[in-house]
Design brief:
The protein has one domain: 3-Layer(aba) Sandwich (Rossmann fold), CATH 3.40.50.360. The protein is of the alpha/beta class and about 190 residues long. Strand 4 and strand 5 form a beta hairpin. Helix 1 crosses helix 7. The strands form two sheets. Strands 1, 2, 3, 6, 7 and 8 form a six-stranded parallel sheet that branches. The chain is built from seven helices and eight strands, in the order E-H-E-H-H-E-E-E-H-E-H-E-E-H-H.
């Protein structure tokens, strides 16, 4: 049983990649098995039913398998125009699709998720969390009701990319602990 950690951004020096790394550091410290996924390693076309009809792209099939191998997810969820990033939405959509070769992989049902976000402003990307929660819930994932939203991203991370604020670090740790407890109970 392990958790999958990913950032919905592939931008160089992304705050969300830093936040995902901070989550992975907590998991490492707590000895919680996990995998960090870099979406840049899985380039996908924009979801299109005609493309799907020709068979899932190899990277979609690979991602579907990767998601299915984990009992829960920590998603660093950027916000674009008050909603989910096109990259993250596209990945979630492709992973939800199946074909003959991937039909035995269940990427979302009976899984857990913790949504985390940050932004330079005071809202910390929270508007997008509601949309991502709705998507994952409709796919059968149990999303923790609490999330982690780190405001003022330019000041939140050190030059090395570490989360500076002790209060925010504790909130992240507390929510990861809650995710792991819930994931463990569901797996029992």
């Amino acid at each position: 049983m392990s958790l999958l950690v990913l950032s919905g951004s592939v931008r160089k020096d992304s705050f969300h990649t830093k936040l995902a790394r901070a989550a992975a550091d907590v998991l490492q410290t707590q000895a919680i098995p996990h995998t960090v996924l870099n979406l840049a390693d899985y380039p996908l076309p924009i979801y299109d039913g005609d493309v799907e009809a020709q068979g899932l792209p190899d990277f979609a099939r690979t991602l579907r398998k990767r998601f299915s191998e984990h009992a829960g997810f920590i998603i660093a969820n950027p916000e674009y125009n008050g909603s989910v990033t096109p990259l993250l939405k596209n990945v979630l959509d492709w992973v939800s699709r199946k074909d003959e070769a991937s039909k035995h992989h269940e990427p979302y049902a009976n899984k857990t998720a913790l949504l985390i976000s940050t932004s330079p402003g005071s809202l910390a990307g929270q508007r997008a969390l509601r949309h991502t929660r709705e998507i994952l819930t409709s796919l059968g994932t149990l999303v923790l009701p609490q999330h982690v939203a780190v405001p003022n991203a330019f000041q939140a991370f050190s030059l090395e990319g570490l989360l500076i604020d002790e209060k925010q670090s504790q909130i992240l740790k507390t929510q990861i602990d809650a995710l792991w407890r819930l994931t463990s109970k569901l797996a029992a």
